[in-house]
Amino acid sequence: MMRVFYSAASPFAAKVRMAARHCDLELESVTANTTAEPADLLSANPLGKIPALVLDDGTTLYDSRVICDYFDRLTGGQLVPQGLDAWRAVRLIEATADGIADALILSLYEERFRPEEKRHQPWVDKQLRKADRGLAALETMLGDLPETLTTAHFAVAALLGWMGFRFEGKLESERPRLADWLAAFPDAFPAYGELRPRLS
Ligand SMILES: N[C@@H](CCC(=O)N[C@@H](CS)C(=O)NCC(=O)O)C(=O)O
Description:
There is one protein chain. This protein has 200 residues and is of the alpha+beta class. It has two domains: 2-74, Glutaredoxin; 84-189, Glutathione S-transferase Yfyf (Class Pi), Chain A, domain 2 (Up-down Bundle). Helices cover 59% and strands 8% of the residues. Strands 2-1-3-4 form a four-stranded mixed sheet. Strand 1, helix 1 and strand 2 form a beta-alpha-beta unit. Helix 1 runs parallel beside helix 3, helix 1 (11-22) packs antiparallel against helix 6 (151-166) and helix 4 runs antiparallel to helix 5 (121-141). The chain is globular. It starts with a strand and ends in a 5-residue tail after the last helix. Glutathione is lined by residues 10-12, 34, 48-51, 63-65, 98, 105. This is Glutathione S-transferase. Residues 1-79 form the GST N-terminal domain.
């Protein structure tokens, strides 16, 4: 069975685990603490990031977009539409959601991994501006999501679910359409409650 290194809180890992479930692919989920740089994770992904996928033959794949592409190919296109317009919309929404997560994660890492005297607030602010512009764009893109579930749906749901506990209240106060979209997502994908990012 394929194995994925993940952590309960990771939005990128949640995206991949939701995509696998949607594709009816069995995955063994193995927790990894990226801070400790464990050998088994590093042998799957030299970058030491999660998610990292180990295939049945021992070969590995990362990052979340590549893993989702792999699932899409394995299952004859269950995650990414073929038509050019729909493909463009889905990949753009996914890239936007992932980019927001990247920026917000960097802003948190500044606090988590740097001693207070070495933190550089202008750099954090820059990441937060990226995220804010991305969230504004994402709100306008929601209508471009296809009706059938795609990698973009899972990327957006994972990002917004993660923000729910890392940036509590932000969506409700600043981007209520995104908050409403997430509240309705379990109707489209009932396994969201089980697979959403969470604080362990
Ligand atoms: N572009 C990567 C981003 C993955 C990522 O940043 N994962 C975080 C956890 S959510 C991580 O592993 N951080 C540890 C580190 O950067 O060393 C993907 O889409 O998989």
